[in-house]
Amino acid sequence: MKPLLALAAAAGLLAQPTALQNLLTRASSEFPGKAGIWVRHLATGETAGVRDGEMFNSASVIKIPVLVLAFQLADQGAISLDERVTIRKEDLRGGSGIFRYHDAGLQPTFRDVLLQMVITSDNTATDLAIAKVGGVARVNAWLKESGYAAGQRLVQTTGELFAKYNALKPAEDRDAKTNADRAYWLGEITPRGIGLMLEGIEKRTIASRAACEDMIRMMRAQQAGARRLNHFLTVPVAHKTGDFPPVLANDVGIIYARSGPIVVSYLGNSITGNYGDAEDRMGRFAQQLVELFDK
Fold first, then answer.
1. What ranges do the domains of the chain cover?
2. Which pairs count as long-range contacts for 253-256, CB under 8 Å and 24+ apart, including other chains?
3. C-alpha span between 120 and 186 (Å, rounded)
4. Per-residue pLDDT tens for 234-272?
5. Residues with Cβ < 8 Å from 247, sequence gap 6 or more?
């Protein structure tokens, strides 16, 4: 230890890690992969992070900015959430979601499309939504205009992403692409960047109050990621998952603890251990987080 640091420590001038920071540090170190975590208790303002400024493979978590932009455009009257969208055969996408199991010609409202993009992480819905708000370039321009570009970027549509995976030769390592090749990422996010967007939704500042409440309603209806943030909790959670088994499991959201809303971003990339165990560790972390604040 350098002399000045030693003197400062002896005098008690160096700030000691908080219980919250210790919890995040321990959770990150015990995760069977690379974990980035950011937490803010909105009632107290207490904040902590681990690798919270690093870019991670977002998987489907990047669908949150698409959701927010859609609601902002609806607030402005540029699009209508009540408009019926015809889902054609060529619109169908593989992977997660339910629209691909319906007959072509289904006509949900655009609000229903956004709902499925969130609660079943529907990839057909996602690409329809991206097109409706102006495309990948428009989403990224909006992120820059809104001050979120430092922590979030939509790389491509789900259709473009799965076309790349489908073109891989059998000998090529799909998991290595998911872990390290950003050309095979749906989006890029930092734990803090997406956390700040969630904070804006919860505080009703990122869009109209009605729009924010609708987005929270959707995230509270989440059907995926049952073993993650909400697994061991008895309080409500509004969240959005991102998945690419066996190497990626993300979950971000708002935990409605008795002490007040807690924004949590937990990104788990490059998983090397058991996938279910990785998910359970996220759930145990959320449980310990709520216990810390609600004690």
1. 18-294
2. 253/198, 253/219, 253/222, 253/229, 254/198, 254/201, 254/202, 254/216, 254/219, 255/229, 255/286, 255/289, 255/290
3. 16
4. 999 999 999 999 999 999 999 999 999 999 999 999 999
5. 33, 175, 178, 179, 269, 270, 271, 272
Classified by CATH at the fold level, domain 18-294 comes out as: Beta-lactamase (3.40.710)
Find the DSSP H helices in the chain. Answer: 3-10, 19-30, 63-75, 110-119, 123-132, 136-145, 158-166, 174-180, 191-202, 209-220, 275-294
Close Cβ partners of 101 (under 8 Å, ≥ 6 residues apart) = none
Tokens of 221: 């209806």
Question: Tokens 């088994």, residue?
Answer: 245
Coarse DSSP helix, strand, coil percentages of the chain, rounded to the nearest 5 percent: 45, 15, 35
| pLDDT for res 14 | 58
Q: Give the number of residues written for the chain.
A: 295
Cβ contacts of 79 within 8 Å, gap of 6 or more: 70, 73, 110, 132, 133
Round the average pLDDT of the chain to a whole number and report it: 95
Pull the structure tokens for residue 126.
């996602």
Percent of the chain predicted with pLDDT > 70: 95
- State pLDDT tens for residues 40-58: 999 999 999 999 999 999 9
Residues whose CB is less than 8 angstroms from the CB of residue 50 and which lie 6 or more positions away in sequence, other chains included: 24, 25, 27, 28, 35, 36, 37, 38
How far is residue 136's CA from residue 155's CA, in Å, rounded to a whole number? 7
- pLDDT tens sequence across 118-164: 999 999 999 999 999 999 999 999 999 999 888 899 999 999 999 99
- Separation CA 5–CA 14 (nearest Å): 8
Write down the pLDDT at residue 151. Answer: 86
Question: Are the C-beta atoms of residues 265 and 281 closer than 8 Å to each other?
Answer: no
